[in-house]
Amino acid sequence: MKAWFVTFAEYMREADSCVYTILDGLSNEDREKERGSFYGSLSGLVLHLLGGTLFFHSLFKGALKEGSAAAKALDYPAPIGKESFPKGPLTEAQWKSLGPCFEAADRGTIDFARALTDEELNTPIKLDWYEGNPPSVPLFFMLQQLIAHGIHHRGQISQILDELKVDNDYSGINVAFLPK
After folding, report:
1. What is the DSSP string of 124-145?
2. At 40, is the secondary structure helix, strand, or coil?
3. Residue 78 CB: number of other CB atoms within 10 A?
4. What's the predicted TM-score (pTM) here?
5. What is the extent of the structural domain holding 143?
6. Alpha carbon distance 13, 6 (integer Å)
7. Where is pLDDT greater, at 78 or 10?
8. CA pseudo-torsion sign 111, 116, 120, 124
9. CA distances (Å), 148 to each of 11, 52, 79, in order?
């Protein structure tokens, strides 16, 4: 199971890098334009994608024993703080600051997946939704949800890029990230 999660973490890094590179090639106006998605603009979707990753990371870190190698993997080398999530349209400089944040978060996911033990994969994560039913789910389930979350929102971005006629085959079959 662990190898599966490591592979998907590597895939997420590759896909997020491709998405960021494609969107970085657009004008700030094109990234900020209302596109009818729940998160509005392309940059709104990207901010949600990054924020979701950090939310899942906080759940994982909070469930693991302090000092575990997996929990330490989520201590990013570059800080990602509230300033990484400005409200409203992003300036060009704010957009540029997201690239390193994505890289740090995706590196954290990869390092986390690599460091997880079989025991940690089954660690219960307490939920505060669904009215406490179930009160918790295994960490491996929430890690799978992180992967699904990213795929879902990158698909939304792909749809918008398709409508704009911007080439974006980051969702195709890519083997570049697989170990040699």
Report:
1. EEE-SSGGGSSSEEEHHHHHHH
2. strand
3. 11
4. 0.90
5. 2-171
6. 11
7. 10
8. positive
9. 12, 11, 25
Report how far residue 31's alpha carbon sits from residue 144's, in angstroms, rounded to the nearest whole number.
28
> Is residue 176 situated within a structural domain?
no
pLDDT of residue 81: 66
User: What would you report as the CA-atom Rg of the chain, rounded to the nearest whole angstrom?
Assistant: 17
Q: Give 162-169's long-range contacts (Cβ < 8 A, gap of 24+).
A: 164/30, 166/22, 166/26, 167/22, 168/18, 168/19, 168/22
Please report where in the chains the tokens 């390092």 appear, as a residue. Answer: 111
Reported as a single tens digit per residue, the pLDDT across 98-116 is 999 999 999 999 999 999 9
The secondary structure of residue 89, as a DSSP letter, is S
Examine residue 45 and state whether it is found in any structural domain, yes or no.
yes
Q: Is the pLDDT of residue 79 over 90?
A: no
Which ranges constitute the DSSP H helices of 25-79?
A: 28-32, 42-63, 69-72
Cα dihedral 23→53→51→149 (10° resolution)? 70
CATH number for the domain harbouring residue 136: 1.20.120.450
**Predicted local distance difference test score (pLDDT) of residue 133:** 80
Domain total in the chain: 1
